[in-house]
Design brief:
The protein is α/β, with parallel strands linked by helices. Helices cover 26% and strands 26% of the residues. It is built from 9 helices and 18 strands. The longest helix is centred in the N-terminal third of the chain and has 16 residues, at 104-119. It is globular and about 65 Å long. It starts with 11 loop residues before the first strand and ends in a 30-residue tail after the last helix.
């Protein structure tokens, strides 16, 4: 669903959600489902064209931090139920996630993670190199020490998730104003009272920032520090494969961050370039592929010379500790935020939509997200390192 651009926006709203990516429309859906009316989602472009735009998104509960495990696990269940609530086919495929580990230290760290995941009902397990190769025949076991595998993980289509949530939100009366940029906000005392957009001013009772890689700019408009930095990530698609590729897990070489998995009639290939400068540039540069090929020659040789048929570049929204910012501003209590997911926003989308709904309604969320408050970076609280980051 792409809503038409609004020549004007409503003069007032109970809630203005800034950002029409997967997080913004999930929050809108969950609020509307709970009976909140008069919601406006403001998106400067078209829905889901920022960080959500990636063609396939991994979904997993394999994390090292218990809060991330809980958010991922609850979201996995919601993705399974997506055809019924909100009601859309998102092409969710539970192929599993396979982390390839090439040192005893990695194996030890992931084994500790598996123990924690199992205690939270995630069916992950440690396996040997030969078992990993059976799951993913492309692998060379040379140098592999172990692997971590969870069969309940997989991947889905972010674009279909955005459309599913947005359509359900619109049916519930949410106004979705696309091609509408936020220019500023008005505050009075300790409250945000209006959002200025390229199509008019919206007086409001609350603002929720779900602006992804642009969230720091939104926070700065009202003096709320949201330490989110944009970093480009790139991926590529192979040409159609004949015979077809085997059905494989979402496979990640942890040391290099190289990953690959099925995509339509071929494979999707990705890798985080360690030399990538920060910034909002999303130009796809095919030269980047040589980084992937270099890793593949050792770890999955057959992939190194596969013909590619284009690719895509998008933005990660990165925080200093690679964990999300979810909460309510201490200075402006009617300004809430959900941003900075550092590459695992899509997979946590359903759970975060629930959490932000409950924070707005001043209800107890299913899990305590106070450790993810943006305040953690300047109040001396314990930073939450997430080890399973790619």
């Amino acid at each position: 669903m792409s809503s038409s651009a609004f020549p004007t926006v409503p003069a007032s709203a109970d809630v203005v959600i800034i950002g029409g990516g997967v997080m913004g429309v999930s929050i809108a859906f969950h609020l509307a489902e709970a009976g909140v009316t008069n919601i406006v989602v403001v998106e400067r472009g078209d829905l889901g064209r920022g960080s959500s735009g990636k063609p396939i998104g991994g979904v997993r509960a394999q994390f090292s931090d218990p809060l991330n495990i809980e958010l991922g696990s609850r979201s996995l269940r919601a993705f399974e139920e997506f055809p019924h609530r909100p009601g859309a086919d998102i092409r969710f495929d539970t192929v599993g996630y396979l982390f390839l580990l090439d040192s005893e230290r990695q194996a030890s760290d992931f084994a500790a993670g598996v123990g924690l995941q199992n205690s939270l009902d995630v069916p992950s397990r440690m396996i040997g190199p030969e078992d990993a190769q059976r799951l993913c025949p492309y692998l060379s076991t040379d140098g592999l020490v172990a692997a971590a595998y969870s069969p309940a993980d997989g991947h889905a289509r972010p674009g279909l998730v955005v459309q599913g949530y947005a359509a359900a939100a619109a049916r519930a009366g949410v106004t979705i104003a696309t091609r509408t940029a936020v220019r500023g906000m008005d505050t009075a005392g300790d409250r945000v009272v209006a959002v200025h957009t390229s199509h008019g001013r919206i007086a409001c009772s609350a603002v929720i920032c779900a602006a992804g890689a642009w969230s720091a700019r939104i926070g700065d408009m009202v003096g709320v520090h949201l330490p989110v930095r944009p970093v480009k990530r790139q991926l590529a698609f192979t040409a159609p494969l004949a015979p077809p590729a085997p059905r494989i897990p979402f496979t990640i070489d942890f040391s290099s961050t190289a990953y690959f998995h099925n995509s339509d009639d071929g494979l999707l290939l990705g890798l985080a370039d360690p030399g990538q400068a920060e910034g909002f540039d999303t130009t796809w540069t095919p030269e980047w592929l040589e980084l992937f090929r270099t890793v593949a020659r050792h770890r999955a040789p057959a992939l190194a010379d596969m013909e590619t048929a284009g690719g895509w570049a998008g933005l990660y929204e990165v925080t200093p500790d690679h964990n999300a910012l979810i909460g309510r501003s201490g200075e402006l209590p009617n300004f809430l935020y959900a941003a900075g997911f550092s590459g695992h926003g899509f997979l946590q989308t359903p759970a975060v939509g629930e959490v932000v709904r409950d924070l707005y309604l001043e209800r107890e969320p299913f899990t305590d997200v106070s450790p993810l408050s943006a305040d953690r970076f300047h109040r001396g609280a314990e930073i939450r390192p997430e080890a399973h980051v790619v």
